[in-house]
Amino acid sequence: MNKFADIAISLPLDRTFQYKIPDLSQDQIAIGKRVFVPFGPRRVVGYVVGLGDEVDTSRELKEIISVIDKEPLLSDEMLKLTHWIKDNYFCSWGEAIEAAIPGGIKKGKLEIGTRIKDSHIKVEDHKSSVPHDLTEEQSKALKAINESIQKKEHKTYLLHGITASGKTEVYLQAIDEVLKLGRQAIMLVPEISLTPQTVERFVSRFGHHVAVIHSKLTPARRFIEWKKIKDGRASIVVGARSAIFSPMDNLGLIIIDEEHETSYKQDDVPRYHARDVAEERARLNNCPLILGSATPSLESYYKAKHGHYKHIRLTKRIEERLLPKVKIVDMRMELETRKRIAIFSRVLLEAMERTLKNGKQAIIFLNRRGFSTFINCKKCGFVMKCKRCDTSMVYHFDDKRLVCHYCDYKAAPPDICPKCKSAYISYFGLGTEKVESEVSRNFPQAKIARMDSDTTSKAGSHEQILGDFKVGDTSMLVGTQMIAKGLDFPEVTLVGVVSADVSLNIPDFRSSERTFNLLTQVAGRAGRGDHGGEVIVQTYTPEHYAIQTASKHDYDKFYEEEIITRKELLFPPFINLTKLTVRARNDEVAQNAAAELAAAIRQKDPEMMLSGPAPAPISRMRGYYRYNMLLKHKERLYMCKLLRDVQSTFKKPHGVLIAVDVDPVSM
Ligand code: ADP
Ligand code: ZN
Ligand code: ZN
Asked: Is the pTM of this model over 0.90?
């Protein structure tokens, strides 16, 4: 009989805790179940991760209060996977476990035997769809993948196919193979492309077998979907990042669509990357992993080129449709000839007019929301900044307020300058609201809709906007990256990019890659039907290789250029990064703590490549002064181990917070 249990607790402590198992609980206790345990003065939920009678006898152990679950909540596989996350992403095992289970369960409130109503997907609402006859390229891809599925072989495929080349159809048919063998599949999509359109394609093919998980579900809904999977009533999960933890017990395939998307990285503890977790989970299950993208991340393409992934290309659009022609407009020329900054070039205005006249639709893209993004005083130069962040406030016309896009602080727009009391306040910079108003000023007769996080905060608004566009009630759709991905509207013949420079100017070694991806994705929205398509890209840096290569749909050329810089400056894929952010309410305290931490790291390993500390790109956020430093090393695990060593001796000054981000996706 086991007298002691090892318990993982969701606190940032790099260890598990041993508790005595009371006699009464002997029959109930098992690995993978939740328990209530005393922890200091509190009662907390813990997870049983080990049983045994070995014990540290130097102190009296406390007893488990009670066992919560009748059946284990966590499988052996899930324990292994969360342990792997703990090792690789610098968090505790308990924190990793809590990332892997739905919200309601964490507080110990829900019992997994709870009876529940059925899920929100109504199959009757969906048309059923049959598999297409595959093109030659698709068939070849499917054949290779199916072989791995049948052989229960862990292999990672990079399905590298241009937009509308039929990647999703390959996923659907591979899933079909998995179901035939009585196994299950997980399909991850980025949060913002978890649109009704995407879900529809899966439900119409597989009906009741599909569970859907995304962040807008209420905890109760999320639990219902989770339970449906746990009970084996759903064999396919379509979901955002956290769906990688779906409780399937016979996994046959994992798919990550748009694998290059940064939303697969969690930006809170545990800061895991779903792509890497997926690879580990596929390895544990001996099943293939498909990474799909038109613009693979440099990391994945590098692995494919060097034989770690199997590279499969889809080079043609379905029905041999052509990729749209992309025209770059040099806005510096526009400036010279017009003497006034115009939002739209003449080329773009003419194209919009033509599109409307032909009864077709246009997508107008700008990756920044709001009306004016920079407000200052012409007399004294004062800039309206957030009082908590080192960022400029953005004017939002819809609610006539200034908003900070980093902390959501809101303020009334000033009538006079807060500093010199002059009335010369001017508004610069543009966001989607301004673009929308300019489109309607130029084309008063056109029906226009705007889609960004401001217009889609209400439940159902997302569906409403896309629905109206689909049936042609609106003819122009203005929006942020929300409209850049995944949408399949055959009547869209024009895509206008108001400014390609927004993402290019972000201080991050990945800004070129981001820009290339965004331009390629948004261009891919044009010409999906029989009417061809054109894309117009406005920029002040037309010679930049990210813009040049994107305009020619030339991923390989982009990769060739970009990989040189990465190698020279030693960035991924040539090295792994860990970003440390030290913050405090007092600038000096933060700065000193960062310097001390850097010194402590250098002392443990004088060879460690460490840059910084330096002020973060946004040096103050939510009232905290922030300093970054960057570690570079070949081995992710080595960095984590080193930081654990440092952590055990480093005395963190009062009021200082330290965040460790392994494989950061932003600087
Ligand atoms: P991607 O995922 O690469 O963007 P999709 O799978 O969405 O491409 O395919 C684009 C369009 O072509 C979709 O409307 C899809 O239904 C259709 N399609 C895919 N494969 C075929 C095929 N083999 N024959 C005919 N139509 C197809
Ligand atoms: Zn002033
Ligand atoms: Zn702010």
From this structure: yes
